[in-house]
Amino acid sequence: MGIRKNLTKIKTALISLSDKSNLKIILNTLRKHKVNIISSGGTYKKIKQLGYKCSELSKYTNFDEILDGRVKTLHPKIHAGILNLRGNLKHKQQMKKNGYENIDLVIVNFYPFEKALLGKRNHNEIIENIDIGGPSMVRSAAKNYRDVTVISSLNQYEELNEEINKYKGSTSLKFREKLAEEAFMETAFYETKIFKYFLTRRANFFPKKNVFSGKLLDKFRYGENPHQLGAIYNQNDYKDIIQLGGKKLSYNNYNDLYSALTLTKSFPKNIGVAIIKHANPCGVSINSNNTKSFNEALSCDPVSAYGGILSCNFKMSQNLAKQVNKIFFEVVIANGFDKDSIKILKKRKNLRIIDSSKLDEKFNFNFISKFNNILIQTPDNIKLKKRDFHVVSIKKPDKKTMKKLIFAFNVCRNIKSNAIVITKDFKTVGIGSGQPSRLDSCRIAIGKMKKFQKINSKDQLIAASDAFFPFVDGIETLVQAGVDAVIQPRGSINDKEIIKFANKTKTILIFSKTRHFNH
Amino acid sequence: MGIRKNLTKIKTALISLSDKSNLKIILNTLRKHKVNIISSGGTYKKIKQLGYKCSELSKYTNFDEILDGRVKTLHPKIHAGILNLRGNLKHKQQMKKNGYENIDLVIVNFYPFEKALLGKRNHNEIIENIDIGGPSMVRSAAKNYRDVTVISSLNQYEELNEEINKYKGSTSLKFREKLAEEAFMETAFYETKIFKYFLTRRANFFPKKNVFSGKLLDKFRYGENPHQLGAIYNQNDYKDIIQLGGKKLSYNNYNDLYSALTLTKSFPKNIGVAIIKHANPCGVSINSNNTKSFNEALSCDPVSAYGGILSCNFKMSQNLAKQVNKIFFEVVIANGFDKDSIKILKKRKNLRIIDSSKLDEKFNFNFISKFNNILIQTPDNIKLKKRDFHVVSIKKPDKKTMKKLIFAFNVCRNIKSNAIVITKDFKTVGIGSGQPSRLDSCRIAIGKMKKFQKINSKDQLIAASDAFFPFVDGIETLVQAGVDAVIQPRGSINDKEIIKFANKTKTILIFSKTRHFNH
Asked: How many structural domains is chain B composed of?
């Protein structure tokens, strides 16, 4: 069995830990199997304190730790002890000649660089938390996994115990290779955090080589479809949404959920509702009355809303929860929940209840993989103000109309291109999304409006477009359907014709400086 | 000036290189400024051979390299020389006591791990290419960048020369910090490659911590919109598409281009055309006659095709190029180009000409960032065969009809959900994409068909849906518009009703086992 599983006996272990928790459970096992332990500094003291035998590293290497611990384990006796190929005769002779011995097990965790970052320490303290000796030892051990067992995380203590007990003081090759993979996982992750820290300091956006890292939040039952595998990682060290009830979130739930939050987080503070289906909104409203806001968002397309994601940019109340429960949603998001509202929502067993009040809205990049490539860009998160728009028509909007126009434009930014939105007051009444032709998006938005709204001629209808109209036909179609004011990016060679048409039809026309494609 | 810029004098440099090219340009500068050089092994020999002075590292440390070079620089004298804080009195005393000297400049590049991977070496050789000493030195030097200059790449030689010449043998803090950032860029990138190699060996899909890395292919003038910054990275070491002419590709071009290639690469070998606009197809055909294929794809929606991306899954001919030139496309992709075809296409100065024949179609994951999270999944790349479908209607499709149905379904998979496609033979005649309601996608597809096609009652029309119909109304609307055969995933509670409706209307109905959402 020993040969088949490539068992190697652990005679000597080197332990060097920044986080010394749970050490006892591993020390017991090592003592049971008569493993010699070498250690230094705080780890040495801790081991002695817990009542276990341990040799001091400085005596082992005959070299005193210097530079406040910056140099202690970076010593040939340590690294040769780890790195030598046990089956290599030349290596064996060189080890003997130098008086070096094998180190069979390395247990290391690193200075808490990430914690130093999150703790907002000053730059010098953060730099001091870059571990040099630790990663060197872990990398040596992982490279030589055929002979050496490497523990690079607290989470591995239990399985190490099991393995050593199972094989009476030895470990199997399979286990060692798994640990090597996890060791390089730790070093790779550690390096990305350090690199990103330097990048951010220098505001370097697109370095020659780039790395992205995340911690596993959840594995899904499947990806976008049941024959795909899927998972979600967080780039920081915490969950940014909190699930308070309901079934496990799926890949598609997360995708829709973040589309919803992109939209609702662009609203004024603590008001507004969006309903999302297939990553596109099918109803949006920002009425200061939350219940009204919900009903208005729902009324835009109540058919599509079925089974969708409801996102409330305010704290959920008991009253609204009762209204919400009448409709079938897959997910309900709110910026916090009244206690009683949760009780009510939980009556729908499967309904996923999501608290978004801890959402970290700050992020610097959006990225997406395409075959073996990664497209990366800064997010389209500029807050648009009145000064970012020009009134180009003869007919001018009053203050309130201007606000309505900007609302329509902000909703439109968050719909898949080509996007057209028709709004009345501060609610959507027609949404046209994801079309190759802008004119088609106009027609879809108008069609929705006609299907679900009772519009009378006194209603002020507003239309927004995420990019310029290439021809007059788009705005013409909208105005014919009753639209009174249009907001759109400038930039078409037909801009003049479009302004002319607006003036002819007494339509208010606003040009934005910015375009907002969103694919 | 010296104090303001925090200039530090370089007296001693340590050089340890795997790739020894271009070394001479740096050696000249170091000699000019009387810098002592320490080196070992192949680098030492190379420096001597080039005619420069150099001390041998083993003499410097008084320690002979062992274990076939696995241990040479992992020595306290080296690392203390790099890591000591020059302004720290205690450090100074410890250095003196140990007889250690400062190392002010570290020039290192790593064993070519990536090259070993691409060279398909065996596992032992790949493992031997994991550099231990190199990254340790680079990390030490980068950590101590306030005192030490670190060169971790061949590309930095020129700027090092400039800096040293400018400051007469010194470097500025600003420069050293930039180099530290780039050093951690190199180590982070190196570690991700090693980690991913281990992951792949063990087929571990979703490790607890994950990393993604890429090399910068291009910075764009802007991202999806002009107020956003954007760039593209490649996860491998090569460009997978080749641009043969035209304007620089934009962020949106790349986004559309890879949507096009996802679709065309799902076609049978060397036939088929797709036209893409806003990441969605607006026309698809797989006629074995390439010119016919082009014309058919174009005729599906010639209005939307304007300014789109043309993707040909075959080698572009002179004849077809003449046809293509009559239409305004932003990008033309082909699986290779006849020489004469390029000449013709280049007549349109701005037209981006893309050769996709070197596209690396193999990739294991799709990932996308959402706020501070990353959603990751295996791609939806299963090849569907006849056995993956069930005929559930009384009316059965013949062999050719079955092929047409599968074609329609494969196109539908690559359209943004909810997606409905109507096809005639092996071309699309109506595409409905990106709607929150499936019924709306049906109507959009039908609307397109009615607008651009002359359909007569003898034509066999086929419809495909990327997910099941929740109600009968979707299929009903399609059949009323003349559709004779429908292919769709099973799974609705109304499946039985839908089969009943198909039989009542003598419609062929096929169920797939797989669903194909694509958001």
From this structure: 3
Q: Are residues B98 and B158 in the same domain?
A: yes
Residues B31, B28: Cα–Cα separation, whole Å:
5
Q: How far apart are CA A390 and CA A91, in angstroms?
A: 77
pLDDT at B2 over 60: no
Contacts of A135 in chain B (CB under 8 A): 135-136, 139
Do B341 and B394 lie in one domain? The reply is: no
Could you tell me if A68 lies within 8 Å of chain B, comparing CB atoms? yes
Q: How far apart are CA B115 and CA B257, in angstroms?
A: 29
Q: Examine the domain organization and report whether B395 and B483 are in the same domain.
A: yes
Identity (one letter) of the amino acid at B430? G
Indicate whether A115 belongs to any domain. yes
Whether residue B64 has pLDDT greater than 90:
no
Closest by CA position to B299, among listed B157, B165, B455, B465: B455
Q: CA–CA distance from B428 to each of A422, B294, B464, B468 (Å)?
A: 30, 12, 10, 20
Mutate which: A125, A182, A193, A195, vs B, most B CBs within 10 A: A195
Residues 165-184 of A with CB under 8 A from B: 177-178, 180-182, 184
Interface of A with B in 451-510 (CB under 8 A): none
B167: its two tokens = 């400051």
Averaged pLDDT score across all residues of chain B: 95
Which residue reads 């849906």 in tokens? B465
Contact B184 A198 (CB under 8 A): yes
DSSP state for residue A431 in the 8-state scheme: E
Q: Same domain for B256 and B395? A: no
Query: Does any CB of chain B come closer than 8 Å to the CB of residue A63?
Result: yes
**B378 token code pair:** 């295996």
CATH of the domain at B291: 3.40.140.20
What lies within 8 Å, CB to CB, of A76 at 6+ separation is: A98, A100, B63, B66, B71, B74, B75
ipTM over 0.90: yes
Residues B164 and B91 in one domain: yes
Half-sphere exposure of B241 (CA within 13 A, CB side): 29
Non-local CB neighbours of A7 within 8 Å, separated by 6+ positions: A1, A167, A170, A171, A172, A173
B residues 9..28 contacting A (CB < 8 A): none
The b-or-e profile of B421-432 (16+ CB within 10 A means b, else e) is bbbbbbbbbbbb
Could you report the per-residue pLDDT of B429-438, keeping only the tens digit for each? Answer: 999 999 999 9
In this structure, are strands B427-432 and B420-424 parallel, antiparallel, or unpaired?
A: antiparallel
Burial letters B153-166, b for 16+ CB under 10 A, else e: bbebbeebbebbee
